[in-house]
Amino acid sequence: MKTIKDLGDLRGKRVLVRCDLNVPLDGTVITDDGRIRASLPTIKSLTSAGARVIVMAHLGRPKGAPEERFSLAPVAQRLGDLLGAPVAFAVDTVGSSAQTVVAGLGDGDVALLENLRFNPGETSKDDGARGAFADELAALGDAYVSDGFGVVHRKQASVYDVAKRLPSAVGGLVLTEVEALSRATDNPERPYVVILGGSKVSDKLGVISHLLDKADCLLIGGGMVYTFLAAQGHEVGRSLLEADQINQVKEYLERAATMGVEIVLPIDLVVADDIKPDASPVIVRANAIPHDLMGLDIGPESRELFREKILAAKTVVWNGPVGVFELPIFAGGTRAVAQALVDSDAFSIVGGGDSAAAVRLLGLDINGFGHISTGGGASLEFLEGKTLPGIAVLEG
Ligand code: ADP
Ligand code: MG
Q: Which end of the chain is more exposed for a tag (fewer CB within 10 A), N or C?
């Protein structure tokens, strides 16, 4: 992959940069600017090289037309604050505002285009429609840098098609992601332990299947526990259960046994009658969930068990909180897993948007982790061994 250095002298050049600035908003207030901060190093390296930087990004899921609540205007403001320099905001993507803003950039200046997904071409499945939008975007720049790891698994105009139209390079953020995640996919140091949590087993079937060939041990937490317990014939009460996945999970359990891969399920659980802050949680054995309660976190013995496995590992990947960590009464398991990662000597990777959010919310020292991925779906697909279009296009 070409890096920014390979693009040559960038002074005065217009450089389009795809970033992942898809931050959570409460109205127009940014509630977590982690993704904006993560984008700063690449933007700064371009401005200090004298480039005229044009940042492209999306926010939320507008349906191919402008929608005020998905405007990137608040992000332009925050980006400017963090850079300590104004960011010129174009109120459209490739229209007259974008043209004017780009024409007005001086060397080292930064502009942000409005939400790319206000244009239907961005996410179109039709190569022609996507290509037409990519032509218009490419006309705004002289070179392209791919730095939005959260979108590299998408074949979208600003991720894939623009890269085909301009001299292109990988940004530092995407490069760091690829290098870190490769440590888990290419000859990981063993034991290689993976903690899988989150809400749905169906989201993570691909990764489970792939990891059975790669990992030494899978620790299962979160909402997917109950489909595993059901597959073993246990009662799960009112816990999250994907009945249509039970047979698939049974097959995984058998495959794991044949291959000598350890699948570790919680032995005790925190259960309650509802997901509410004033619930009265109780701890039960994992094979004895009362019929009227639901499992919402792993219990204290399971935390200890998971911790032992994590401390024995040389490579650890964690994807998905092991409980409903958003409520303090169900956050203990997720905290324990995160703390074990911090305490372990293993190279640790945190993938998944909610897992990374949990690390921040629970106030853990982010320096205690080997790598915190900025891309949920993208990091999962990478770990699944899939080809990511936004990476492949830079290699081609
Ligand atoms: P990530 O974004 O890290 O990949 P997911 O999006 O798959 O994670 O899942 C995160 C969600 O899973 C969290 O909102 C959490 O509350 C929920 N969750 C975890 N454990 C349970 C459980 N036992 N029952 C229901 N939801 C759960
Ligand atoms: Mg998530």
A: C
Span 4-42, pLDDT tens digits: 999 999 999 999 999 999 998 999 999 889 899 999 999
Ligand 1 pocket list (CB less than 6 A): 197-199, 203, 222-223, 240, 295-296, 319-321, 323-324, 326, 352-355, 376
Summary mean pLDDT of the chain: 96
Q: Find where tokens 């730095």 sit.
A: 147
pLDDT digits (tens, 9 = 90+) for 245-273: 999 999 999 999 999 999 999 999 999 99
* Nearest CA-CA partner of 197 in 282, 315, 317: 317
Q: What's the length of the chain?
A: 396
Report the interhelical angle of 353-361 vs 332-343 (nearest 10°).
90
Q: Which ligand is nearest to the CA of 383?
A: 1
Nearest Cα residue to 196 out of 383, 388, 386:
383
What one-character-per-residue DSSP string does 109-145 give? -EEEES-GGGSTTTT-S-HHHHHHHHHHHHTT-SEEE
Atom of ligand 1 nearest to the CA of 324: 16
CA-CA distance, 176 to 63, in Å (whole number)? Answer: 31
Instruction: Give the pTM.
Output: 0.88
Where residue 330 falls among pLDDT bands split at 50, 70, 90? very high
**Contact, 112 vs 72, CB < 8 A?**
yes
The rounded percent of the chain whose pLDDT value lies above 70 is 100
Q: Is the dihedral of CA 314, 320, 321, 322 positive or negative?
A: negative
First-to-final CA distance of the chain: 8
Token digits for 119?
A: 């244009």
Q: Which two tokens stand for residue 107?
A: 């060397």
How far does the centroid of ligand 2 lie from the alpha carbon of residue 49, in Å? 36
CA 81 to chain centre: 24
CB 376 within 8 A of CB 353: yes
